[in-house]
Amino acid sequence: MSQYEPPPPPGLGDGCTAEVACKGTPVAVEHGVVTAKDDAFHAVAASNDGVVFMGGFGSGTTEADGVPKEGNVLLTRRGPDGAISDWSGKFVPGKEGTLVTVASLAVAPAGEVAVAGYFNGTLQIGIESYASQANSRDAFLAVFDAQGALVYLKAFGDQAYQVAHAVAFDPAGNVYLGGSFAGTVDFGDKAALEASGTGDGFLVSYDRTGKLRWRVPVRGAGFQAVYALAITDDGDVVAAGLMDGESSLGPLEGELTEWKDMFLARFDAASGDVTWAQRMGGSGDQIVDAIDISPKTGEIALVGNFRGGKMDLLGKQYTNDDMHVWDMFAAFYSPTDGALLRSAAFQGPGIQAGTGVAFDPAGDVVIGCLFSQQLQLGIKLLATESGLDADACAFKLRGGTLDVVWGHDFGDAWAQGITAVDVSPKTGRPLLVGGFQSKLVGILDEPESAGGFDAFFLELSP
Predict the structure, then answer these.
(1) b/e for 296-320, b at 16 or more Cβ within 10 A?
(2) Nearest CA to 192 among 176, 181, 205, 207?
(3) Contact predicate 360/367, CB 8 Å
(4) How is the chain split into domains, by residue range?
(5) What is the pLDDT of residue 339?
(6) PANTHER family under this entry (predicted)?
(7) Which class in CATH covers the domain with range 30-60+67-460?
(8) How far apart are CA 345 and CA 197, in angstroms?
(9) For 241-252, what is each residue's pLDDT tens digit?
(10) Rounded distance, CA 439 to CA 291, Å?
(11) Are 154 and 177 in contact, with CB atoms under 8 Å apart?
(12) 0.90 surpassed by pTM
């Protein structure tokens, strides 16, 4: 099922430049590939010419926390005219019990598409094939040209786990891949990295042909990971992720604690050297989910969640003493040194979880989320049908003030959630993906799921 509304006239796509363009109302929805099993989109990326890619997993099952357990790649291309092409078949389906899932997508200025994720079992594109070792999860990176032909495919792993969480292109077409690994992993230079603790993070860069440029580990005694990437206007890469316990990255030397902290760091694109790095922690857990960089000011937006104590965002503190539910935050940092510029927290009964962030051309920011019970957005209160279900949600903040421009929730008495967000550079429209059970109340003709979770894509007016 597909619905499509043509882009607005020139001028209405550049953020909220007219009242009609400031509502965040649904204008197009895609129900994804419908199967009797679980399907969900986990990533979305838009090109400068209006093409949108959505990725995740399909025909699978999930763990209790929603993490994919088995299934095959779900990869969809949506043209500027709304036409849908299924690219899932570029990945050969595995046998029962196999998992191959997309975690992140990126589109290069020249149109190449990077697909990153992880697999358990066999990964195959065309005649290229990899098998994971010892039934563990291995990371992969696949790059296609604009027509869908494979440029190169890489897989990384041993008997332990390796997962790719994030991928990005710089203006020159170089690729950056971030994730986490245990055991030993070789990124292509035959000088393998060995994890120093429960798991280390990694950031690695390849040129347009797939040749390794550099690699940087995030080491520590606990678990470390790179969860999100963004590219500055001059081509440097900014990474955000997790530091658990005693850990190190460039100038950062974290002390051993029992809590999960976040880090934010800028890396020189040519060498991988750390330009600056910041660690944000407190007396509870803090997790980063997504970052983006403003095309207007260059500032960095960070969205994530916290629980179980006090969180310090480099000078601004928020408290959530409940270890069982997450609260959401949005924070904005200087691209020069990582100093905090401003922040906001979204708290209340139940769970408030931020899952995606993207700037629009005017410098305002769109946040994707899910919540249970209530979500207070300025003077607007969103509420689920009961305290046991979860709704998908999205809202826009004014970039300079963090005032709420609009906010919406979508769902019924079952579970629905946004997993990733982008904004079309061509139209300025927010692009949301996720998974849902039952019915997406509040979206056009209210799509209904066919089995467990179904994948969905949603385009909103600015």
Answers:
(1) bbebbbbbbbbbbbebbbbeeebeb
(2) 181
(3) no
(4) 30-60+67-460
(5) 97
(6) CELL SURFACE GLYCOPROTEIN (S-LAYER PROTEIN)-LIKE PROTEIN (PTHR35580), PHYTASE-LIKE DOMAIN-CONTAINING PROTEIN (PTHR35580:SF1)
(7) mainly beta
(8) 32
(9) 998 877 678 766
(10) 29
(11) no
(12) yes
